[in-house]
Description:
Blueprint: H1 14-28, H2 39-47, H3 52-85, E1 90-94, H4 101-104, E2 112-117, H5 119-132, E3 139-144, H6 152-157, E4 166-170, H7 180-191, E5 198-203, H8 211-220, H9 237-243, E6 246-252, H10 253-257, E7 272-278
Parallel strand pairs: 1-2, 1-4, 2-3, 4-5
Antiparallel strand pairs: 5-7, 6-7
Helix pairs in contact: 1-2, 1-3, 2-5, 3-8
Amino acid sequence: MAETVKVPVDGVAVTAIGVAVIRARESEREDRLYDDPLAQAFVTAARAGFGEQRWTQLEALADQFFDGRTIGVRLVDERFEAAVAAGCRQIVLLGAGLDTRAYRMNLPQDITVFEIDLPELFDFKEPVLAATEATPTCQRRVIVADLREDWRKALLDSGFQPSVPTYWVDEGSLGYLNQDWNRSVVLTLTELSAPGSRFGAGRVAVDPDAPPYRELRNFVGREAPPEHMARPADFDVEAWLDEIGWDTQFHSWNDMTAHLDRPAGPLNPRIGSIAAIRR
């Protein structure tokens, strides 16, 4: 596999490999919060494309972000289940990365998962999935597109139906909604959302100059993840979402993780997730 798979070793796509490392490690734990059997296949395939020093750096970064990121994966799993139970039959992953929920979460056959990401990401992901011979339990569509450009047409061309309630998933691609292009993405998905559709926006308090984030930017190199490109401005996300047609409810990180048997805080009670439902 190492000779046929093009491994992204820099740029924003490389962050997906770091998250796969985290998911593979979590899946090996006896007290795991989720089980992702495909994560190790991505890690194994990616390892062959990295030099020893750079792989060591990637693993060190995964260690620094492990606790918060792995809990975040579990929380999104729970939101998947809630959205499906509420009647959402489409799920759109904004910056899908090496996500495998279409395979590992036993989603019903009448659910369609649309994965949007960069070409270099899918150039790596699809051959690895093919080699595992894994089969998704639901319908799965791959949309090669950049969220900073025109992704709407590509999504519609892939069979997306704006009349069907949709769960829109963002695990870090959008970052701060004070950035113009992030707000543009949300405006687009709002136009495409039937009543009852769901979306979540994070409320974070990240210092982009803290050592872990500086190291991440240096590691990614030519293109840093959007969430670390700027400090958050004084922008009321909930008021804006309400203005464009969403009902919102804030859930603190502390409340969301209280039921998990895993140290997760406590953190600033203003840190958490804004759950939005389309009116």
